[in-house]
Amino acid sequence: MLNKETQTEQKLRGGYYTPSPIAQYLWKWVYKKGYSSLLEPAAGDGALLRPIKEKSVKIDAIEIFKSEANKIKNSHTISQQTNVYNTDFLAWYEEHSSNQYDMLLSNPPYIRYQYLSPQQRDIQSQILKKNGLRPNKLINSWVPFVVAGISMVKDGGRIGLVIPTDFLQVTYAKQLREFISKQLQSLVIITFSENLFPGTQQDFLLLLGEKGKGSLKFKHARIDNLNNLPAISTLSLEKPPSASSAKWTDLNLTYNERSYLQSIKANLISFNTVAKTQVGITTGANSFFSLTDNDVQKLHAKEFVKPLLGRSVSINSCFFNKQTLSLNSKLDQKIWLLDLNGYTLKQLPKELQNYIEDAENNEVNNAYKLRIRKVWYQIPNIWEPDAFLLRRIGNVPKLVLNETDGVSTDTFHRVNFADNINRSAVLISFYSSISLASLELAGRSYGGGALEILPGDLDSFYIPRIDYSSQINLDHELKNLDNLIRTNDIQKIASYADSVLINNFDFSFDYKQSQKILSHLQSIRTNKKS
C-alpha cells in the first residue's frame, strides 16, 4: 500500500528536474528587454535558472529542501542576483502574495493531496479560494503552485511552465484551464511524443503565456522530442479551446484533425444516452472473495458464488458466457465471486465457516473496506449488469455483453442499457473508429501507455447517432466482430465496425479520416510512431 512513509524523497518532493534544452527554451520565451524580476517557486537545484545571464534580472527562488537550496546558493553558473528562500512556497506565498514579477519560470512539484501535510493542505485551499477556484482532495500540488505563481505576475509579464499533461485531461484541472484562459492574453501549449522524464508514469507539456486582458491568442504544437522545439513566432494562431470543455485532450491532435471531429459532432450522441455505467464491485479483498473451481468444490460453496469477470486477460471476446467460464476454468483462473449476502454464519457449510475463521485469524477482515461493513464477508451492491466496460485499457477497449448472469470486480465497470436498445447495435457502434477515437479523448492516459476510463468520463464519450431501437438482426456481424476482437488488431476491428455502420445503418462519415485519427491517438498514448 502506498503511504507517505514508503514514498521516495523524489516523489514526495515531486521533483523531476528540467532538461537543459527546455530551460534554455523557456528562458528565451519569458525574457523581454526591460524585464527585471523573476519568480521561481519550485527551484529545485536551479535547473531553470542556469540559462539566465542578464545581471539586471533579480530572481526570487523558493526551494523547500535545504540540500537543493544550497546547490543554488553555491552555484557558479546561477546569477548572483538570486535570492534563495529555503522554505515551502505555499507558506512563502502567504507573506509575499502582493509581490509582482515580470516573469514566472517553474516546473512545479507533482505531489498528491494525501502526501501533503495538514498545513500544506490548508494553505493550498486558501490559495485556490483566493483566486476563485474551489479546493478539493483530488487537486495535486502543482495546481496551486501554478495559480499562485500566475497571480504574482504583472499584466504584460510572461510565464514558462513545465506541467503534467493532466492539465489537459483530468477533471480537477478544468478550473485551472478556466483560470488561465481568463488570466492570459496569449497561450502556447507544446506537447511531446516522447516522455520528457523517462522512468516516470507521467507525461508533461510546456505552457507558455503572456498575462493580460483581451481575447486569448492561442498557439499549439506537438513535437517528437527536445531537438524539435519550435520558434513561437513560426506557429500559427488557432481558435482557443473552450475554457468550459471537460477536457482539452484533443490538443494532442493536429488542427485539421480537431476541425474534423468538431464537424462530425452533430452526428454523434453521448454513450450515456444509450446506457448507464457504474463502477464494478469493490470486494475489499479479491484474494478472499475470488475463487477457482477447485476452491468452490473444497469449500462446498457452489450455492454461494456468482460467475466472475475479474481480470482483463480473462476475456478476449464480445461475450462473457459459459464458454468463457469453461476456458478460464481450464486455466485455473478465479472465475467465481463469493456472495454470502442473506446468510448467517451458521447457515454456511462447515468448510466455508472454517474459511472465514482462517481469514479472521490472518486479519483479512481488518482491511479498511471490510472492517467498515456490518458483516465483513458480505459484499454490498452485488448485481448483474447487461455488459462490462474495461476500466484501464491497453491496446483494445473492451465492451463485453453479459450472457451468464455474471458480475465483475472494479477492473470492469458495470453497464446497463436503456430500455428497448439493440445491444448488438451499441456494441458495433462502440468499436467503430470514431467511437474509439472519442474514447481515447474522453479518458485519462498514463505515461506507461494505459488509458483509464471512469464513469464520469462517459459524458464526453460519443458514439454514432444511429437508430439504436432498431431490432435489426446483427448476429452474423457480431460473430465477425467477435472473431476480430480475438486478433487484438484495433485497426481491423474498427474498420469492420465502420463498414457495418455504413452498410447496415446508412451512417455517413469520413471513415478513413476517423481511422487515421484513431491510429494517431493510439500512437500518442503508447509512444509509438503513427
Automatic annotation (TrEMBL):
- Record field: catalytic activity: a 2'-deoxyadenosine in DNA + S-adenosyl-L-methionine = an N(6)-methyl-2'-deoxyadenosine in DNA + S-adenosyl-L-homocysteine + H(+)
Show the Gene3D superfamilies listed in the entry: Vaccinia Virus protein VP39
**An annotated GO BP:** DNA modification
Domain Type II methyltransferase M.TaqI-like, first and last residues per copy: 69-197
One MF term in the entry's GO annotations: site-specific DNA-methyltransferase (adenine-specific) activity
**Which InterPro entries does the record match to this protein?**
DNA_methylase_N6_adenine_CS (IPR002052), M_Eco57I_C (IPR054520), MethylTrfase_TaqI-like_dom (IPR011639), N4_N6_ade-DNA_methylase (IPR050953), SAM-dependent_MTases_sf (IPR029063)
* Enzyme Commission no: 2.1.1.72
Q: Pfam families recorded for this chain?
A: Eco57I, M_Eco57I_C
> Which stretches make up the Type II methyltransferase M.Eco57I C-terminal domain?
246-501
Which enzyme type, at the first EC level? transferase
Name the family: Belongs to the N(4)/N(6)-methyltransferase family.
* Protein name as annotated: site-specific DNA-methyltransferase (adenine-specific)
**Organism source for this protein?**
Limosilactobacillus reuteri
